[in-house]
Structures are given as C-alpha cells and as structure tokens.
Specification:
single chain, about 210 residues, Beta-Lactamase, about 50% helix, rod-shaped, 2 domains
Length: about 210
C-alpha cells in the first residue's frame, strides 16, 4: 500500500480515520441519494434508537423504510431539502429515560466536481444544556421585566402620595391636627412600599440576580 504525502500508509490512515469517527460521541452519518446509509458511527446508531427503539446501521435506509412514522416525519423533509442542495440545521427533541433532550442536527449536501449532489453529510450534537441555559435566561428576562413594571408603576403611586402629603404638612404649627392625619397617611404608604420592596427582593433572589 503506497503512503500518502504525509508518509502514512493509506490503510493505516483509513484505520485511524475510522477509529476517530467511531470514537466520536456526536452522531455522524453519510446518506446517498436513494437514502441509503453509506457511513455512520456507533453514536448515530444509538441516536436513532432513541427515536425508534432500533439501531440504524450502514446499508440501511436512513428512514428505516418508513416503519417508524414519528421518526420519518421528523427527518424525511430534511433529507429531501439537503438532496435538493440546501445546507441547514434543525433542532430535534427526543425522550431518553423519561427526560427530554434536544439535538442540533446539521445537513450538508455533498457535491461532485460538476456541482451535482451525490450524498448528504450529517452531524448531530446534544444541545440540551444549552437549551436549558437559554430557557433560564428567558425566565430571568421575564422576571426582570416584571420587576421593572413594579418599580415603574406600583412604587410610583405610594411615592407620589407621600410627596403630596408632605406638601400639606403644616410646618408653622406642628400641633395642627391635620399633621397627624398626614403622618398616618405617610406611614400607610411607607408600609405599602415595604411590601412592594420585599416582593422585588423575593423575585430578585429567585432568579439569582
């Protein structure tokens, strides 16, 4: 066997590449124009089993001949689009041991020297943690919007009342009976503000800000 320009014999190089693909935890597979699996790694076979309960292997129809409707419905259009020349990525969900996991799946058409599509190269990666992180950020943003609403609306009322009452206070005659009414009103608004502030603090602690 003649070595390539790197000095490594072709059979050794091919074996090394095969080992690299097989030991990759992310699913990798190559599909022909008639939807036959030309190449795939063990991670892909296991990944398909999460959708169907059956592993797919080299030589199989990648849609398993439509035997699993849910699996076929998810991916049939993806392969058709890729074979038509589209390069794109989707996000698919699956149930693993009772928990929902998300996978980002990339479809890339493989073209010959004439520009004709001769296969589809596919790659998948578990993005569950990334999705959970984004969901947490969305929850935090929603909570922050609610906090902003509280600060701009609910707090404004008591503060405006306190400022209005302060202007009515009779500083010239501290014993004026109206002053006690004003102080009672300010105290009541202060208690209202305290309740609102505690609400904001609870919400802030809940989202870890």
């Amino acid at each position: 066997m003649e070595p390539d320009k790197s000095g490594i014999p072709d059979d050794v190089l091919n074996a090394s590449l095969r080992a690299l693909v097989d030991n990759t935890e992310d699913p990798l597979w190559l599909v022909s124009t008639d939807l036959t699996i030309l190449e795939c790694n063990p991670a892909f076979s296991l990944w398909v089993s999460y959708f169907t309960g059956r592993e797919a292997r080299r030589g199989d129809n990648v849609l398993l001949d439509g035997q699993y409707r849910n699996y076929t419905d998810k991916f049939e259009m993806c392969y058709k689009l890729a074979l038509a020349g589209s390069n794109f990525r989707t996000v698919e969900d699956m149930n693993i041991n009772g928990q929902v996991h998300y996978t980002g799946v990339t479809f890339r058409p493989v073209k010959d020297h004439l520009g004709e599509v001769i296969a589809v190269s596919c790659f998948a990666r578990d993005i569950t943690e990334h999705r959970k992180h984004l969901f947490k950020i969305e929850q935090q943003n929603a909570a922050l919007r609610e906090i902003a609403f509280i600060e701009s609306h609910k707090i404004r009322g008591p503060v405006a009342t306190i400022l209005g009452l302060e202007q009515l206070y009779n500083y010239d005659d501290p014993h004026d009976p109206i002053n006690q009414t004003i102080l009672d009103g300010i105290k009541e608004m202060g208690l209202s503000l305290d309740v609102i502030i505690h609400q904001v603090v609870r919400m802030t602690n809940a989202i870890g800000v």
